[in-house]
């Protein structure tokens, strides 16, 4: 028979997984809404964000209750600690989906600028990165989590390329400056979603192994970081 | 005589306060470096960020140890819970100071664009906001924390004004587009620092009162949020 504590912890994990599915959905709606110029899909993000925000508070409250009533130790404590952090990242990913949705709304209502050549590639990379990060949590799989850390450089490179190409384009199309800035901000929003996925992966590794890889991975990629300045 | 637990908790708070002073200093160096075109001051941010990152890990580790060994209850548990979250926000504020420093480096090495009219005002607003948020933690003062929540709209409005004015300027100065984008990104970095200050204030209120004001304040300012899309 499952102990009361195990039941509560399992329910907490399940709650986080449901919340994560809304976050994935919000990112999907925001990016698809832009690609398909669908205001309706962009609107869907707001309803999802409300649910994400409610979960954000109720996951924290469940974590606090578990810590207070059950006084977990070792592995269980590490898992709850990771969930507290993952919860924060998920909520901010929801905020970024809303930012994308708002920016996309402006973008698709103005005259088209130029084909969104690299943005759909970045959408795909970021959605995959989010998917693998969440999968690593659901499956308690360290390898998947480490895979996420490798993907961050690709996302950063795509963002830098979109910045550069858009700036180049605007030099000869100054009248499209609002549109160009909107694209750049969307690329920035996506990069932030990638960063949150990295945070989640780092927290999963910590929960599973007790190893804090956070600023180690930062030190290793410092050269890349120094190239990107936004 | 102070209990062992109280000593540990006091030391943890002190550690967070030292970390917070580095964060304030990093923001100061980044913004002053830009205003005074001082590469040296911009460089100082990197050393500070290293210290912030080390503290980030050691504060988390101390929180986990306290939770594991002391199994705190009620008020103490809420305080530790808040510290875990504030620690994350402080580290990200350090990241944003680094972003400002990098963007500022590009900005001051290129030909000057136009006077930074509103940016110094935004620097001041954000530095004050950070100061009041940290003060509310140090002094366990709910009123100060609530004051921070009021300041967020002003910072957002300043960011929107900088976006708008810069875009307007660029329409007739397309050759300055890189410089303009850099300014916009700095305004965005500052806005994010303001958001993290809001998070800290919300965590202080939770630690002191048990009230979770996070998405309540979001709901109240939803109208303003909807106007701003970046």
Report on the architecture of this protein.
- The structure is a homodimer of 230-residue chains.
- With 230 residues, chain A is an all-alpha fold.
- Chain A has a single domain (4-227), classed as Up-down Bundle (Methane Monooxygenase Hydroxylase, Chain G, domain 1), CATH 1.20.58.
- Helices cover 85% and strands 0% of the residues of chain A.
- Chain A contains eight helices and no strands.
- Chain A has helices at 4-35, 39-70, 74-109, 119-138, 142-171, 177-209, 214-220, 222-227.
- In chain A, α1 runs antiparallel to α2 (39-70), α1 runs antiparallel to α4 and α3 (74-109) packs antiparallel against α6.
- The termini of chain A are far apart.
- Residues 220-230 of chain A have low confidence and may be disordered.
- The interface between A and B is large, with 44 and 44 residues.
Short description:
The structure is a homodimer. The first copy, chain A, is built from eight helices and no strands.
Range of strand content of chain A: under 5%
| Chain pair sharing the greatest interface | A-B, 44 and 44 residues
> What share of the residues of chain A lie within helices?
over 70%
- What structural class do you assign from the helix and strand content of chain A? mainly alpha
The CATH class of chain A: Mainly Alpha
Oligomeric form:
homodimer
Low-confidence stretches of chain A: 220-230
